[in-house]
Amino acid sequence: MRALPLRSSALTALACLALVACGAPEPPEGDYPAVFHDAAAADDVEAPDSGPASDLVPDGTWVMWHETSTCVKVLSIHLESVTQTLLLVKLQSSPGGVVQHTSRDCLIEQTPIVGVSTTIPLAVVESIPSQNYVAVLSGSQPGATYSTQRNVELWAMNLTDPEFEELPKEATDPRVYDQDNDGNPGATLILGANQCSMYVVQRAIAQWNGKVESGTRIAGMGNNITTQIVLGATGGFCASQYDTRNPPDTARFVMQRVDGLHGALNLDTNQDGEVDCEEVRAYGSAPFGPREPDNARCEPQP
Amino acid sequence: MRPLRIQAACLGTLVVLSSAPALADELTAFGAGARSVGMAGAGAALLDDSYAVHANPAGMAFGQPGVSVGFVGAVNRLKTRLSERPAGYDLPDLGASSPAIPSRYRLSARGSQSRAPGFSGFTVGATISAGIDWLRLGVLAFIPTTGIGNQNSFYSDEREQYFSNSVHLAIYGERLSTQQTLIAGSVRPLRWLSIGAGMRFAIETRSNNHVLVPSQANNSVQYIDMRTETGVDTAPLVSAAARFLDDRLRFSLTWRGELQSSLRGANTVQINGFQGTPQYPFSQPMNIVAEHAPHQLNLSAAWAQGSFAAALDTTWSQWSGYRDDTDRIAGFHDTLSVAAGVEGRLAKRSLVRGGIGYRPSPVPEQTGRTNYADNSMWVFGLGLSQEVMIAGMTLDVSAFGQLQAAVPRSHTKAFSSSSPACADGVAALCDEIPDDTKDPATGKTMPEAQGLQTGNPGFPGWSSGGWIAAAGVQVSWRYR
Predict the structure, then answer these.
(1) ipTM greater than 0.85, yes or no?
(2) Where are the domains of chain A?
(3) B336 is in which domain, residue-wise?
């Protein structure tokens, strides 16, 4: 037996050298250039502050779409006009399932009657006072019920008792004001291809009942009564006061969360941190499946 | 006499072929026992104790029976570093019509689990002769302190974004801390020749579960009937060893068969509301390969004279048959690794040993969809042994260490202006939101879907490197 001197120290030194040299290198930059069509870019490095959830969390920004029916009697014929309305709604939860709503009208469109459409200009739509009302949610999971209080929307007038007070008939009534600031009383609507203008006040009373369909969607039916008074017109049939009514059980609505939270669609396309009416109008009513007018709905019931 | 030995050889082979438990990745990666680890994985032809069960079962028949216990631990500083993602490739939020969960909802931040874990565990081994000089039976086990029966899996492609959201080491990760058990027997029909055979075992789980989701409104409530069986998968070990020139020149040739630790089965899921539909109940098959040890062929040559020994080993590994965690052929290359080691007397009862080796990586450049991380490794070993007399017994107390230094490596995803949609069989980096994705409300294609959208953790590239160091102690006692 003889001892063999080994150069273990050399091996150790080699190992130490290797340790210094073998750290993970700087990762490569990659061959893919940055592109800027993606609103979610650069979000990937951080874990989300809230994950996807099937439960509905009301607080946030929603779009309310509702569809109402108006029957108009023209020359003994009953015709239906369908009104599509898009509203931007901020929801805030309160204890007991109460949800505070603050809504703004963004777009109102009506189907034509005998080929003549009524245009509600954006100046009118955007000058409708915002509405504050509450709803009650029975739960946060699909199937939970959603019921709003009766909500009154007034155009171009101030009423002491918004729901029951008699509406003004004259443009000189002190309760009437120039809502769209066009120099004419009330709100100015345009018929046809600018054939004539009508100056109106309007009261719309609505109450909605629905169910939670998902964490980002509530849908259901409602009841509405809309009364419109023509205060004046530029001429023609704009000056006519037509006999109108709202048939029962024809109004429906959808509440769609649109702020990108909790798995929702994000309509904030300009990435300014808020969804505005312009973005809601760009989204439009089409995703909610509006229906065509059906005059049979307006036939008088026997 | 010779017919008796041949019968015993056959009997020993039958015994080991019909016996039970495990796997050898910790042993394969670092070597089996103080001597092999200290010589950088070399020296299979020198082994004749219980650690020969893994490296060279035939060698047992040349050694005295004995028992051995040891402890080994490793610090793992191998890691991956992900390239910064360029803007514009995240999965957009398309609401309910999103084909994939948007990037902003990942549960883990990208790259947060890029470092591989260390491990520690005990080794226990023994050989017996049953009173027959030319026969040895042996058993060897590695028992990790982190638990027996670990089975971990990762996706190697974009699917991992939904889980760890990182790139994982394919070979030197969690699988190093898998429990392993090997048994073997050997006979020496000729004075200079020995043959051995054995078996190693891996956990094999079969799980067929029945699940009921009573309400879609609350997916957190589910009822499960579980049917899980845990068994073993087996792989053979066969070796031959020969010694010439008064046992100074030694050779061994060892074949270790392919071994998998798998989880297979299916969940049969009933979801209230889907009854009556063709897909009811849903079947969710599971095919997970938590471990895959390839076929290996080790050829070892050694010179031993007195207390001096030198060894040179080369190992061929059939990585081309490697199946990844999702039971897919990964496309690795076969490799040929080498290791050399020496040992000699430091003092009257002390030995010192060392070695160096090189293990080329079987993993090709990861320019496409997959992110298998692995590096070629330089291996440095060092060890000391001291004979200690206790109560008339001679114990061999060894300390050993091994450093494996990774050759730094980087991968870049190959650029393409038109990435294919992700689907089975697609090997290129793929688009998770196909360009023809349509808005279900309008029927029109969506601008957010145009171009490449990928959450692949390895996009647009990554690097890997670092080191892993293992060290341990071992006490061996030879008896007759």
Answers:
(1) no
(2) 60-291
(3) 2-189+314-478
